[in-house]
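#lab-general

N.A. 3:47 PM
ok so I finally got the sequence cleaned up, no stray characters, all 100 residues accounted for. can someone with queue access submit it? mine expired

B.Y. 3:52 PM
send it over

N.A. 3:53 PM
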Amino acid sequence: MGERPRTCAACQRVLAAHEVYYRFSLVLEGEQDVLDAPDEADGGRGDALAEFVQRLESGAEDPSELEAQVHWEHSGIACAECRAVAVRMLTSSPEDAGPH
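B.Y. 4:20 PM
back already:
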C-alpha cells in the first residue's frame, strides 16, 4: 500500500510526493487580564463573572463553542505558497494588519 497523498490544510491542494511541505501546529488560547468593573448605574449588579456563570447554568450557550473561544488548536501541513501567506500575515507590522 502506498502512502496517503498529503493535502494542504489551507488551500486543500493535493501535494505531489516530491513537493516540500510544512508541518504546523496552531494554538489559540483566550485570555483576559481584567474583568469589567461593575457598572455604578445598576448598583453593582452587572458583575461580568456572575452573568457569565448564569449564562452557563441556563444552557443558553453551546458549551463546545464556549470552549473553542477559550482554547482552539489545529495542526496539519501547508504547501509552500500557503506557508508564505501565513508567515507574512503573522509577522506583518501593526500598521499593515488592516481592520479585524
